[in-house]
Fold:
Amino acid sequence: MANVILQTQIPNTNVRRGKVRDVYDLGDKMLLAASDRLSAFDVIMKTGIPHKGQVLTQISKFWFAFLAGVVENHLLSDDPKQYPAPFCDYAEQLVGRSMLVKKTQVLPVECIVRGYITGSGWKEYQKQGTVCGIKLPAGLRQCDKLPEPIFTPSTKAEQGQHDENISFEEAVKTLGQQKAEYVRDKSIEVFKKASEYAESRGIILADTKFEWGEIDGRIILIDEVLTPDSSRFWPADKYQPGRDQESFDKQFVRNYLEDIKFDKSGPGVELPADIVAKTAAKYIEAFEKLTGKKFAI
Structure:
């Protein structure tokens, strides 16, 4: 089953299993192995999405290289043969879906940047004219482009819990003024550069979530970057404000769960084969459009 890959095969006790990634603590380094598990509404579904872990890893690897001149990141290697024992002996499982990374002190704030008004932001705007407390111009339509990208941080919830939006002032209380300003400014800078590139590939980057970590006094980009799991990507040729947009992510799954009135709490459910196939195809399409490369299984 796609959703159980890398659950128990590698003998190592220092492992933490997230919604999608298995994280192995190697002392001064970490090994991230992206499974094919799928989380929707912060709940892990019983059915995985084939090749999803590979797609997420390869897209992140692409962006890390693309952004190398803008921001430091945590990637050391994605070649399992270079991993320390025993992981180098599990290359067949890990190839394409794993990264050896620098170990950092993770900053306890999710750094969300929004370039368009959609999702929970649209719901708040309809009621209050704001997104995460930030006042926006009147008369915006659903999925309209914002005058400028906005930084809307949130808490980092434990597995099974839901992230909560917080104000920048609350982020300052958590991180301190200097760190909060740095991750805000750097997140927006990275978002703008990525948005410009994505548009050249026929994709609109509506919003995204970054994670940052601190190492030796430096704050660097960590975890996954600008993937369909952490971002809303829309096909530019089908974009039309005033309605929901088609997307390159797990929207098929979200729509299905809404249709069956899933209560957005655990445990997850089995997904129909057609929903799984459509979602897998969207992830692969996102990789190919962004990178210009054919996805190799």
